């Protein structure tokens, strides 16, 4: 398989139609081939690196005001550093989500300084060299356990049994989630990311309600875990975070829950 840059250069030799590129469109843009998407982004970087796109209305969200897509690396770096001129607090998703969704599901991603800096410092306090060594050992152990588990099956759904299970198991181990809740975390995070897919959200259920309910379920798991860790001396990340202080402040229960939801979504 060619490298992304090779695929992009090859696909752009014919010059994709700039007017036909719509980053807001799940279908056809995000369902097309990877090579075509690489080509589209290469064309944008070359000819229209900062381009405005309107948002599309979905069956459960009204169309927002649109957004500027920044596609060159140097420009992305500049935007990321210029918190005085650019913000994340209004949301980072292509479709504009309601404020309660941005706060709950985006956590630190949908946040600006000084709050973002404070929470980042608290989280960073948990990622010590010792914690990273423990995490590394845990990843190796989890990967070995998963391979041993499916090795004798002959066949399996690789996404469900291996590709999805590995990152979420690592995240649950990292946060000290009890093993009997792993499947719950997996199912709830699938709903959060489902985009209303009927495989995860029944057609007679409002997707927004399903997302909030699933997010609340993940938050409840984190609240239970954090409560068990308070007053203890555990070595998982939840134990570290419930005791870590920056400028005399600790993370609230809701901040911990939102951080856990962010990890689950990122690891799904």
From TrEMBL:
Gene3D superfamilies: Cytochrome P450. GO terms for biological process: cholesterol catabolic process. One of its GO terms (molecular function) is heme binding. Belongs to the cytochrome P450 family. This is Cytochrome P450. It comes from marine metagenome.
